[in-house]
């Protein structure tokens, strides 16, 4: 009887916990669209001219300079991470051919309800020196603040000339689904109750004996 009851309990607990969650795609953009002076897909653009932020060769292009910072920028607003934690962002970047060692690409994020942008890249950002450099992959954890909320994400450049900047591709946000404990089905509850009742009966019989 004891072994049967323990087995019932273990089976019910395992059912309630469920299987472990794995990383799930939350939002992504591979920019696989025609060359354009606009980015599309709800990116908010900032540039000196209307051809500074857009699509080039299936990538996001940021170029040109403005007084102060940022020079050129693209922002994705209100990416929902509700129901997820352990948020991660990955992307690939490359310099435009005219960029030099004094030019930088930045990536930053914030909780949508906040005004505090958090830089992902330590120091000055991704250095854009090296004409013709291949794409470089980047991968960052956004930390606990990004869990189960809504976030904004921004790429922006700090350059010294109008033909300098960066290309960005394969932007992807992932997270781990937050799984609530499952409610056991009525049949499982009935089985557990029967087992507990049987245990109580055994104990009463031993007491009488």
From TrEMBL:
The keyword Signal applies. It comes from the Bacteria. The keyword Signal applies. Keywords: Signal. Pfam families: PEP-CTERM (PF07589). Residues 182-204 form the Ice-binding protein C-terminal domain. Residues 1-23 form the signal peptide. This is VPLPA-CTERM sorting domain-containing protein. It comes from Noviherbaspirillum sedimenti.
């Amino acid at each position: 009887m004891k072994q049967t009851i323990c087995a019932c309990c273990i089976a019910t607990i395992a059912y309630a916990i469920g299987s472990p969650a794995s990383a799930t795609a939350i939002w992504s953009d591979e920019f696989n669209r025609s060359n354009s002076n606009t980015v599309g897909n709800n990116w908010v653009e900032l540039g000196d001219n209307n051809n500074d932020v857009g699509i080039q060769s299936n990538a996001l292009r940021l170029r040109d300079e403005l007084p102060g910072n940022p020079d050129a920028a693209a922002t994705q607003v209100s990416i929902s991470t509700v129901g997820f934690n352990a948020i991660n962002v990955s992307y690939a970047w490359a310099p435009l051919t005219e960029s030099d060692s004094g030019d930088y690409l930045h990536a930053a994020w914030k909780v949508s309800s906040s005004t505090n942008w958090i830089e992902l890249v330590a120091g000055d950002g991704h250095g854009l020196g090296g004409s013709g450099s291949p794409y470089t992959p980047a991968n960052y954890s956004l930390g606990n603040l990004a869990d189960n909320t809504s976030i904004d994400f921004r790429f922006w450049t700090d350059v010294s000339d109008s033909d300098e900047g960066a290309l960005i591709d394969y932007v992807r946000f992932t997270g781990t689904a937050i799984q609530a404990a499952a409610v056991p089905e009525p049949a499982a509850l009935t089985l557990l109750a029967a087992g507990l009742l049987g245990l109580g009966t055994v104990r009463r019989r031993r007491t009488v004996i």
